């Protein structure tokens, strides 16, 4: 099978950094297109390893393991953005990494990300860099309260965040950052949150899935519903805005773009340079899902068009939610996706269910 | 997670005999429900091995390998019916095999299968056992020509078959059997062929997917289209007939039931005690596909309802058809499924595409 010279041929191997549920679902999508996968993951017994052709268990500091991994694959992608820079340098010297380093650099740091989005002319929450109590006092002065202090790096699912109800919370919030560089973000009044799962191919083509409405609980995504309640104009705005971000980064792969819907327009909350929890509905709503879309981009294939054939409500199964699976298994139109994790700890994403409507 | 005592818990391991594309897609479905899989396959580098937790490469005569395999799994299923009896005896002493031995015994032998179906009161093509030229002469006398002489065992995709246009073809057809016990089957006048993918759970519940219309080319399935052109009465007949077969066998798992549509009613062509090529459309037409349905049954889970949310045309990609994949990848609504096979030999099933209609 050949077509354009960029198309990775079936039988080739895609290397995936990270062995969690996103890597697991990427691995299955890659197999569906005839590729093999090789997972690189420091933790033992990664969920992605159950459905991969090869697994390397090693820390990101193990240069020999990184080199052997790179030598065994044709292209490298990742399921999370917080990969140590040194490891990326080692890998990139030998194999292409998609999405590219710029996308990682932007999304690894909340301050860089917000500045990048502002420079593109997109709306974001008001923000200011906070390295110490002087910065924080100035930031509170400028942005006001309530506000949220967040570490610039390594935050996810509400971790590394501290809420300031009033200026008096400043000291406690700063203490929560444990000395890490931070960013103060102002509150945004929004009616609801939506996200766009957008993809850009190696040829610059962009395709977006229908925006979904996200509802969070305890800082973790609880449900995504498609279609989201948006006007036609908002829908167009969301897609154009996502395309602008991907084009600016010369991005190759799938990105999750979280948006607040406000009377002033769509405000970008966060971007994630990878497949995204709020795109899991595509597995049962589209012929080509976000995981395959990402693999297509990374492999230099043409993108799928992302057309939705069914309405879907995605519900995350967190911690003990997984005990409800026997009941869910009896529901009509419920597609269960479990991640193969051994222990159902509180707050741990154990799986999700896509409820298909007609 | 617990419910009924029969339900295999996520984290358990399902053993799969056979590492081809059916085993591959079963393995992915098992992972989706949180199970691990262990593939047993004599051939090197099996397609299912790319997405399995463990692979044993050993012949079915290797008793030690069979015992180690059985010890490592919680339940055993299979992707094809021609597993040597001795191997099944060894395995069954240690772990349950689902679907059961009776289903295998019936479907491994065309004569036993036809007799079983007749005894159930179902219509089949006229048939007679043929061990030698005297039998064949008598069978031709009874059934007439045109007719097809088939080996009783180990036939698939048109292999081990010889057509008799007239009684004079008898000697040549018998020579084609190379001494193997055979069966002469009369021709059936039919308007089209459909198949029902039926499932029976461990609790005796039966669920069927919508019948699909099958079109063959050179003796190999080319396309399956759902919905199939059937009257409401024919649709009901098809489902009741399939349920009768599964109940008679106390079957647990998915079975493919091929039917000829004739003015006299539905005639059973063949049954396959496994997931079936004509059920691949379910991957993109239903929330629970045939592979997951099979795994649910084998794992003692409740069945999915098999409801179809979209119309689908499934096309097999055989041999060089796989060269068309770059073009198919650009089609809207086309879901590609490749099997990870290295060489595209003529007649070899390399993958399939499900075209989803709205």
UniProtKB/TrEMBL annotation, chains A, B:
Alphabetized Pfam families for the sequence: ATP-grasp, PurK_C, RS_preATP-grasp-like
Native organism is Pseudoruegeria aquimaris
Q: What is its EC number?
A: 6.3.4.18
Give the record's keywords alphabetically.
ATP-binding, Ligase, Nucleotide-binding, Purine biosynthesis
Pathway per the UniProt entry: Purine metabolism; IMP biosynthesis via de novo pathway; 5-amino-1-(5-phospho-D-ribosyl)imidazole-4-carboxylate from 5-amino-1-(5-phospho-D-ribosyl)imidazole (N5-CAIR route): step 1/2
Q: What does this protein do?
A: Catalyzes the ATP-dependent conversion of 5-aminoimidazole ribonucleotide (AIR) and HCO(3)- to N5-carboxyaminoimidazole ribonucleotide (N5-CAIR). Catalyzes the ATP-dependent conversion of 5-aminoimidazole ribonucleotide (AIR) and HCO(3)(-) to N5-carboxyaminoimidazole ribonucleotide (N5-CAIR).
Record-stated family? Belongs to the PurK/PurT family.
**Which Gene3D superfamilies would you find in this protein's record?**
3.40.50.20, ATP-grasp fold, A domain, ATP-grasp fold, B domain
PANTHER family from the UniProt entry: PHOSPHORIBOSYLAMINOIMIDAZOLE CARBOXYLASE, PURINE BIOSYNTHESIS PROTEIN 6/7, PUR6/7
Where would I find the ATP-grasp domain in this sequence?
114-299
An example Gene Ontology molecular-function term: ATP binding
* Residues involved in ATP binding: 110, 150, 155-161, 185-188, 193, 216, 269-270
Record-given protein name: N5-carboxyaminoimidazole ribonucleotide synthase
In terms of InterPro entries, this protein maps to: ATP-grasp, ATP-grasp_carboxylate-amine, ATP_grasp_subdomain_1, PreATP-grasp_dom_sf, PurK, PurK_C, PurT/PurK_preATP-grasp, Rudment_hybrid_motif
Subunit comment for this entry? Answer: Homodimer.
Among the entry's GO cellular component annotations, what is one?
cytosol
Known catalytic reactions: 5-amino-1-(5-phospho-beta-D-ribosyl)imidazole + hydrogencarbonate + ATP = 5-carboxyamino-1-(5-phospho-D-ribosyl)imidazole + ADP + phosphate + 2 H(+)
């Amino acid at each position: 099978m050949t077509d354009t010279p960029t198309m990775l041929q079936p039988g080739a191997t895609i290397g995936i950094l990270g062995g969690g549920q996103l890597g697991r679902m990427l691995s299955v999508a890659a197999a569906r297109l005839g590729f093999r996968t090789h997972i690189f993951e420091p933790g033992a017994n990664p969920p992605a390893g159950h459905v991969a052709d090869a697994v390397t268990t090693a820390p990101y500091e193990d240069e020999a393991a990184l080199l052997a991994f790179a030598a065994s694959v044709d292209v490298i992608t990742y399921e999370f953005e917080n990969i140590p820079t040194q490891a990326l340098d080692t890998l990139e010297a030998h194999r292409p990494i998609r999405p590219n380093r710029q996308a990682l650099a932007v999304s690894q740091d909340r301050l860089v990300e917000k500045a990048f989005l502002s420079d593109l002319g997109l709306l974001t929450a008001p923000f200011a860099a906070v390295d110490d109590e002087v910065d924080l006092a100035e930031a509170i002065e400028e942005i006001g309260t309530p506000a949220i202090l967040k570490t610039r790096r390594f935050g996810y699912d509400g971790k590394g965040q501290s809420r300031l109800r009033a200026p008096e919370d400043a000291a406690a919030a700063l203490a929560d950052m444990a000395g890490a560089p931070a960013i103060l973000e102002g509150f945004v009044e929004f009616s609801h949150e939506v996200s766009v799962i957008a993809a850009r191919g190696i040829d610059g083509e962009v395709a977006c899935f229908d925006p979904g409405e996200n509802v969070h609980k305890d800082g973790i995504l609880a449900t995504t519903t498609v279609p989201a309640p948006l006007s036609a104009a908002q829908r167009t705005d969301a897609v154009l805005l996502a395309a602008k971000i991907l084009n600016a980064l010369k991005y190759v792969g799938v990105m999750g773009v979280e948006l607040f819907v406000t009377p002033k327009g769509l405000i970008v909350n966060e971007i994630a340079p990878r497949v995204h929890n709020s795109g899991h509905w595509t597995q049962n709503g589209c012929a080509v899902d976000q995981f395959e879309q990402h693999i297509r981009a990374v492999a230099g294939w043409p993108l799928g068009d992302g057309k939705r054939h069914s309405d879907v409500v995605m519900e995350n199964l967190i911690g003990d939610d997984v005990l409800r699976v026997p009941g869910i298994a009896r529901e009509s139109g419920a597609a269960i996706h479990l991640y193969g994790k051994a222990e159902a700890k509180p707050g741990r994403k154990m799986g999700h269910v896509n409820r298909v409507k007609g």
